[in-house]
Specification:
By secondary structure, the chain is an all-alpha fold. The chain has two domains: 9-43, no CATH class; 57-92, no CATH class. The protein is 60% helix and 0% strand. The two termini are 25 Å apart.
């Protein structure tokens, strides 16, 4: 079994209510929900992480958002093209280690 780290976080009451509702809606504990969000965040590249953390200067936010949407669309194209052709294509979306 993989080892895990335990952390404590503080959230605003409104965020806590939203987390409670989402956990209930999807039938999972708050810990599982938070773990999945942390895991997802950890797999994102630095550009996405900076955008999620709201660290971008206001003047470039829309440009970065467009760039990210274009990147997501480009990553999705090979799978969609293969689906239309009736073929299965594996698309690796993870960055190579190193």
């Amino acid at each position: 079994m993989p080892s895990r780290e335990i952390i404590k976080i503080a959230v605003e009451p409104e965020a806590k209510r939203s987390i409670d509702l989402a956990a209930q809606r999807y039938g999972m504990s708050q810990i599982e929900l938070a773990s999945r969000v942390y895991q997802w965040f950890a797999t994102q590249d630095e550009t996405v992480q900076v955008a999620i953390l709201d660290l971008l200067p206001r003047g470039i936010r829309s440009d970065v958002a467009k760039m990210l949407l274009e990147r997501i669309a480009a990553e999705d194209r090979p799978a969609k093209a293969a689906k239309k052709a009736g073929k299965t294509v594996h698309v690796n979306r993870r960055k190579p280690k190193g």
